[in-house]
């Protein structure tokens, strides 16, 4: 199993329970992957507390989502009164995707970023196999090696995978994966995806005092 057990503990504690859609994900979907035909099928990797489910379904898309935490999946099924009208599954999505394709859009907001290079590569291959030609993959907030925390954790399965952070936002979350541009492009190309847009975001919190700069990648890739 590649799924970090720490995330089950996090959801059991009632943490990381964001229920509003992530701004960048909304923007990227509407700008670069707006549904223009029906049926339109969307796969979300690591939906967590379900922050993006209502938004993605509001586009008229058929929603399927996978999540590694049983607690998170149960909470989503209880939260949505019409949960029977869309599909969610608890699984290690770096090992298996329990839904058949084809999908028109796959989205991931900081979920694959908690796995090793090999696990991410395998998941991308599984997903691409289920995408139709012309389908988009949107990645939001994939952690950059420009983030100072990249050097704060202990190296894990490979150079880009870190864990055991003593302080900061990554404490007690298990594995965290960071990407430089070459590594990110290599993983996506290896899965048969062509990058159409790549954005490197950086910001720095000044008040209150923080640990310094934060950095992430947002991207749109297409299956030829």
Which labels suit this protein?
alpha/beta; Rossmann fold; 7-stranded mixed beta sheet; 6 helices; 10 strands; globular
Structure description:
By secondary structure, the chain is of the alpha/beta class. It has one domain (5-142, 178-203, 216-222): 3-Layer(aba) Sandwich (Rossmann fold). It is 25% helix and 28% strand. The protein is built from six helices and ten strands; from the N terminus they run H-H-E-H-E-H-E-E-H-E-E-E-E-H-E-E. The protein has helices at 5-12, 23-32, 53-58, 70-79, 117-129, 181-190; strands at 41-45, 62-67, 87-90, 103-109, 131-143, 154-155, 161-163, 176-177, 194-204, 213-222. Strand 2 (62-67), helix 4 (70-79) and strand 3 (87-90) form a beta-alpha-beta unit. The longest helix is centred in the middle third of the chain and has 13 residues, at 117-129.
Q: What is the end-to-end distance?
A: 31 Å
What's the name of the CATH homologous superfamily?
Vaccinia Virus protein VP39
Number of domains: 1
Query: What is the CATH architecture term?
Result: 3-Layer(aba) Sandwich
**Envelope shape:** globular
CATH class identity = Alpha Beta
Helicity, as a percent range: 25-40%
Tally of contiguous helical segments: 6
Mean pLDDT: 93
Radius of gyration: 17 Å
CATH topology: Rossmann fold
Tell me the total number of β-strands.
10
Structural class: alpha/beta
